[in-house]
User: What shape does this take?
Amino acid sequence: MSTSELASQVGVGSVFALWFALACRARPALRQPHQRGLWLTVLAATIAITLFQPRVVTGLMNVGVDLHTVTLTRNLIGVLSAGLVLVSMVDIRRARHFRRCVPLTLAVAIGTLLILDLLQLSRPGDGIMSVQGPADPAAAYWLTLIGAHLIGDAVALVVCWAFSLRSSDRDLVWSLRLFAVGSVFAIAFWSGYLWLLYDGTAAILPYLSLVIGVHGFIRAASLLVPMVTAAVRSWTALRVTWRLWPLWRDLVGAVPHVALASPQRTRFREVLLPRSPLALQAHRQTIETYDALLDLHQYVQPGAYEEARRQARRTGLRDNRLAAAALADVLDQARRAKLAGAPPSGSGSLPGVVHGSQETLLGIARMWPSKANTPPVPDRLAPARRP
Assistant: This one.
C-alpha cells in the first residue's frame, strides 16, 4: 500500500470518527457552557478536515463546485477553528482583555485571507496546486493561514497540558491531554506546509494528509473520553453484578433484612432487566453482600476457617484463591447453620474481610459452591422476610 492510499484511508476514517464523536457529544456538550466552545472548535476543525479529503473535494467538483471555492472555504473555516481554540482555552476570568482581542484578531486574519484571495496574488506554474493544496499559493496568503493555525495550536498545546496537570477530574485530564497531543500533530502538519512554501515539493502532501488524519482521530478521541469512561464504568458494574450475583442471592436469602429488594429469579434477569442503574445495582449488591456476611459472622464455628483452608490447600489452590475458597466454604457453613435455626456461636473468624472490599467479595463469589443441590429449608426454620 502506497503512502497516498494509506493517507486516504486514514483521512476517511478520521472524518467518520470526528463526525461520530460530534454526534455523540452534541447534546451533553451544547447543554454545558464550559464544553460548548470545545465542541464548536472540533466541529469547525472537522469541516476543514472533511474538505481536505481528496474524495470529498473530487465529489464536490463533480457536482459543479469550483476547486478554488472548496479550498478557500476550507482555509477560512480552518482559521475560524484556530480562533475558536484560543477563545475556548483561555480562562475568561484571568484574561478578559486577551479574550476580547481574539475575535478581533480572528476577524483580521479571515479578512486578510479574503483580501489576498480577491487580489489574485497567485504565482502560476509553481506546481503545488492540488485538491489538498492552498487556495492561493502567494506567500502572504500562506503565512497568514499557517501563522493563525500555528499560534492557535501552540496556545492549545500549552494551555491544555498545563490545565491537565492541575485537574483532579480524570475525564477532563484525558480530554485535555488528547487535545494537546492532537495540537502537536496539527503543528507538525502546518510546519510541513510552511516548509512546502519555501523549500518543499508536492511529494510531501500525502505525508501531510496522513498527519492530519491522525490528528483527526486524536481530536475525536478527546471528545469521546467521557463516553468511553461511562462505557467502561457500565461494563465494570455489569461484571460486578454478574459475578457477585450467586453469592449475593444466597447470602441475602439467609439474611433478608439487609436487602432493599429481593433477588430476581435468574442472573440474566438481574443483568438484562435491572431495577436500578447498573452502577447502583453493583454498589447495592456489594454493600448488601458485606452486610449479610457480617451477620453470618456470628454463625462461624471456632476453627472452621483454619480447617477450610487446610482442605483447600490439599486441592492445590494457592495464595488468594486459597483464602477465597476457605472463606466461601466457611460462609456456606454459616449460611446453612442460620437457615437450619442453629444458635450463633459468636467465636469464629473470617480473616481478610474486615473492610469488605469489592475484590475480596468477588474472589469469594468466584469460589462460591453451587447451591443447586442444597435441600430446601423447612418453612418453620426459614427467616421471615421484611414486608
Remarks:
- The chain has 13 helices and no strands.
- Confidence is low (pLDDT under 50) at residues 121-129, 371-387.
